[in-house]
Predict the 3D structure of the following.
Amino acid sequence: MEIFGIPIQAFLGQLLLGLVNGSFYAMLSLGLAVIFGLLGIVNFAHGALYMLGAYAAWIGMDSFGINFWVSLLLAPLLVGALGVVIERTLLKPLYKIDPIYGLLLTFGLALVAEGLMREKYGVSGQSYAVPELLRGATNLGFMILPNYRGFIIFASLFVCLGTWFVIEKTSLGATLRAGTENPKLVQAFGINVPVMVMLTYGFGAALAALAGVLAAPVIQVTPLMGSHMIIVVFAVVVIGGMGSILGSILTGIALGLIEGLTKVFYPEASNVAVFVIMAIVLVIRPAGLFGKEA
């Protein structure tokens, strides 16, 4: 059986691989959307935090024998703590001036982190073993799906939808949103807004690190992995709408699927399909598909 002249096995297989990529796009763009939507910071260091999460897992395994499941908790905590330090010491003084300075600072931090890791570990890349519990594959009939890639899909969806629910549907999320829109009023109710802002940035950094740990067994852990991913992820956030949590999740998954299908029908365009879509969306709706018009 064929779909548009393509064997159905190849079509569905590429669609599923696109869903795996889309899961990474969704989780990374979610962290960016949280930081921008609640703090108004265009965090160009997000790719570096993703890379540091992967390296934290690899160093933990290589030097201390820490397994994947512990790293899945420990690496986001460490990188989240680093995010808190960055917010308190470097970003806080920039809140009252032009946002371009925050973008330039985080871009500089990304270059510093990448340079330090290249100096220490080189650019050849390190391998991270798939956890024993998730080794092997499942026969779906139309393809053999590695168990770990299936785990990535479910883990990403769980984290993304859980974060969206907390921010959009709970009193904690309402407090966070109110604190960014009218911090003086919220502070009058006894809520420490600066601490809330600090923890929000740390949470966004932890999300990036979590995606890095999940990616480590799938791709080579290299200092360049963040810079390779961040451009696509920024495109995802722009298409979904800057600051839109749900928009980032849905757009990330959708663009992963579109990228996968493009590899089936026109492989030469797979690397630029996301940016073509971004250009079209910006012309038709500059605020993004789910963003609010100014």
Remarks:
- The chain has eleven helices and four strands.
- Strands lie at 2-3, 6-7, 137-139, 144-146.
- The CA atoms of residues 23 and 157 lie 7 Å apart.
